[in-house]
Design a protein that fits this description.
The chain has 394 residues and is α/β, with parallel strands linked by helices. It is 42% helix and 20% strand. The chain has helices at 17-23, 30-40, 56-75, 100-111, 125-138, 165-180, 194-205, 207-210, 228-237, 248-260, 277-282, 303-312, 321-340, 345-353; strands at residues 5-8, 42-49, 79-80, 86-95, 116-120, 142-144, 158-160, 184-190, 213-220, 241-245, 267-268, 291-294, 356-358, 364-366, 381-387, 390-393. Strands 1, 2, 3, 4, 5, 6 and 7 form a seven-stranded mixed β-sheet that branches. Helix 4 (100-111) runs parallel beside helix 5 (125-138) and helix 13 (321-340) crosses helix 14 (345-353).
Length: 394
């Protein structure tokens, strides 16, 4: 089936409100646009991802998973509202290029098109944290599918389907500490990324609760190339476990240098990163026997999961759990639309605010917003990497 998507890329031309409106079917007045969109029976979903830069591995997977979700929804008949009118979905892909300002600009521009019922993404915290405060005034529902950083102040238009670090990291650390009989933990993290800095803070705060000592706490910045100073301090601390809090692009460099220094302690990381074949290939497999977590068991025999993985083979990059979140987050937005029964952003937001739903690939979603948009019932699977895109549950 032909993809019903279009992509907005930075750098091709100035991204102005006028240009965005033209890309979004070219209306100059909001009332006229609403009328034409409804006559055409098209509901648009904006997808803001970092398709270039250090977080591209996540953004591309989320985008591709979302493409399959839109196609599946259209193949199932699209959406029929309470008045019996039929609608089909179109997804508009937008590259935030790992820039907070770009994410914010794209979100605001999506909000100017009344045919856009909601936005999914960004997976990375650089973009997500920037958009949350603006959602209150834009009144356009936005559902994150990857960021783990804490949100200082929620509003009823912002939601997050994925587990956050405050939930997932302690569960993973507890399991790995027990398996490895470990008591000494080191962390190396990207201080320029909100999610990674938050993950490191969790490692600091969990010492007493989980019974370990943080013996090394080393920071770097995105796109750094040499980590020898941090690694020397970690090596001198003799940790039993090393937690790597970094986006895939930087994490590959960190892990390669850690192992190149002779450090053999088991590694941990979040967001399923070690499962990504990019990580395995980039480190020449030295992440074998390292640990991470997934929100969905990709080895599940469930027919929906297996069909998704088969359909996903058309994309150049292998599926990861971020791909699953891309699919299930779109499905969650569409489910809220179905429950609202109308193409109305405020009513979709109201449906999201108390939504309880199990998405097609198994993501459990429970929202209660206010007070906050985090998923109250995320699923989690701790895994040990055994090979390229291969793991065992632990």
């Amino acid at each position: 089936m032909t993809k019903r998507t279009r992509t907005i890329k930075p750098g091709t031309a100035p991204i102005t409100r006028r240009r965005f409106a033209a890309l979004a079917l070219g209306a100059v007045a909001a009332p006229a646009l609403v009328g034409r969109a409804r006559a055409a029976g098209v509901i648009k979903i904006g997808d803001i991802q970092s398709l270039t830069g250090p977080s591209a591995s996540y953004g591309i997977r989320a985008r591709d998973g979302a493409i399959l979700a839109v196609e599946a929804a259209n193949a199932a008949g699209g959406f029929k509202d309470a008045k019996g009118e039929s609608w089909r979905f179109e997804k508009i892909d937008a590259d935030m290029a790992n820039e907070a300002k770009q994410a914010l600009t794209l979100y605001r521009q999506f909000a100017t098109d009344p045919a856009v019922i909601g936005v999914v993404g960004p997976t990375n915290s650089v973009g997500w944290i920037a958009t949350v405060p603006v959602a209150r005034s834009m009144k356009l529902p936005i559902l994150c599918n990857g960021s783990m950083a804490p949100v200082k102040e929620w509003n009823p238009y912002a939601y997050r389907t994925n587990p956050i670090a405050a939930f997932a990291t302690p569960i993973m650390l507890k399991k790995v500490l027990e398996l490895e009989h470990a008591h000494r933990v080191a962390v190396i993290y990207d201080q320029a990324q909100d999610a990674q800095a938050a993950d490191a803070e969790i490692c600091r705060r969990q010492q007493a609760a989980l019974g370990y000592e943080l013996v090394a706490d080393e920071a770097f910045r995105s796109n750094d190339q040499d980590f020898s100073a941090q690694i020397s301090k970690i090596k001198a601390a003799k940790p039993d476990i090393i937690h790597v809090a970094a986006a895939t692009g930087d994490g590959v460099k960190v892990v390669s240098q850690l192992r190149g220094s002779g450090l053999t302690a088991p590694l941990t990381t979040g967001t399923g990163s070690f499962y990504d074949p990019v990580y395995w290939d980039g480190t020449n497999g030295v992440i074998k026997d390292s640990y991470t977590w997934l929100s969905t068991d990709l080895a599940s025999p469930a027919p929906a999961v297996q069909k998704f993985l088969e359909d996903y083979k058309r994309f150049p990059q292998a599926a990861t759990y971020i791909s699953v979140l891309g699919y299930d987050t779109v499905s969650t937005l569409i489910e809220a639309l179905r429950r609202a029964g109308t193409v109305d952003r405020d009513k979709v937001q109201a449906a999201l605010s108390n939504l309880e739903y199990t998405a097609p690939l198994g993501t459990k979603v429970s929202f209660k917003n206010p007070p906050g948009g985090d998923n109250l019932t995320p699923t989690l699977v701790v895994i040990k990497i055994t090979g390229r895109a291969a793991y065992v549950k632990v």
